[in-house]
Amino acid sequence: MAPIVSIRKMTDHVGEEVTLEGWLYAKTGKGRLQFLQVRDGSGVCQVVVFKQNVSEADFEAAKTLTQESSLRVTGVVKQDERSPGIPGGYELDANKVEVVQIADNYPISPKEHGVEFLMSNRHLWIRSSRQWAILRIRATIVQAIREWLDTHGFLNVDTPILTPSAAEGTTTLFEIDYHGEPAYLAQTGQLYNEANIFAFGKVYCFGPTFRAEKSKTRRHLQEFWMVEPEIAFCNLEGLMEIEEKFVSHIVQSCIAKNAEELAILERDLTHLQRVSPPFPRIHYDEAVAMINKAAAAGELVPGYEDTVPAIEWGDDFGSPHETYLAAQFEKPVFVHHYPTQVKAFYMEPEPDRAEVCRSVDLLAPEGYGEITGGSERMSDPQKLITAIEKHGLPMDAYEWYIDLRQYGSVVHSGFGLGLERTVAWICGLDHVRETAAFPRTLQYLRP
Ligand code: 4AD
Ligand code: MG
What we know:
By secondary structure, the protein is α+β, with helices and mostly antiparallel strands.
């Protein structure tokens, strides 16, 4: 019996007989030859079924194969430069074809389909080559995230998903019934991370987070994955240095490991190749001045038909502002010191200027907007109590969090990187809905 070999490993078996198990992606045939494009999850391989090399029954069976039919083929691996599928040109010269199941009228054909149709068939759509490429790049990103943190002194300590209180504003909470008591799906693991640094120094949590976002945008999901590193004895400047190394490692890992997938997506790599430390840093004040200058001059937002909208000092940026700002730089850009009023309660205000806080967002190029959000945390217990009161949050829920500032409080900082936004950026996608196998958006809870 020939060994079962995945398409990705086929290049190690040139001249040998192997068995391939997979699904028919496409087929062409003429007379005594059938060309089957077979995918097995690891890649796509051309299978050549030549009438004289297989039994009569197998040749007829190959002819009946429809898109997505499952099959098992045995044959000899050949190298042929002209062969599509595996880079370098490899194909399988079949001597046996076994149909496992004939697929009846697979609904997704290579023609264009509407988003509505594709999303309602997401369970099938994930088999398409673009979706395959995206989800494989997502897996590389996850790997690169863990790899960098695990080798830079961070301990992975995961945080709860069922939580008793808000951390990122009360408007996006998903409430659930916790045995008669209200509880919420975690918006972030940060507050628990802050406890964990006092035990482990540098930690990260990485898991699903939830936000009941009420508006439809290209960047917001209801459920998304966030990696959140948190570091003791680290200030805002130290945080930016960590972020730029971390993000550069993620991008460069994808370029190194996913050439085939990026090519399927026809991703222009020019911007991505430039992603290396240091990243430019601008103060919120400077960002506002840049925006308002462009607004006064009637400049267009790159990729939009609209002009740059003016902004009032103190307001948060909208997508057009972020897109315009990011387009002024060759690399991702840090915007730091946002107005305290638009940021979360736990951010450290600037000592001599409390209306801005020691926060930083990283804006990705090409209109992908905010990829990370982070800050130096408030380390003084009294200041924190005042901030909690000011935000109208229930003090008793945060007692333990205030406690952290009573026993060896230190300057500390952290950030959160949104996995799906990072996938959308690296893959060059218009919308975050393609970045998860089963994305949860305002419109789509099913399948
Ligand atoms: O800026 P955010 O809200 O920051 C926090 O949650 C902090 N507690 C993180 C920290 O400091 N530990 O979210 C962080 C990132 C954003 O920059 C964005 O990439 C992503 O999470 N994000 C979303 N991604 C998809 N859909 C949503 N609804 C998102 N909301 C935030
Ligand atoms: Mg943010």
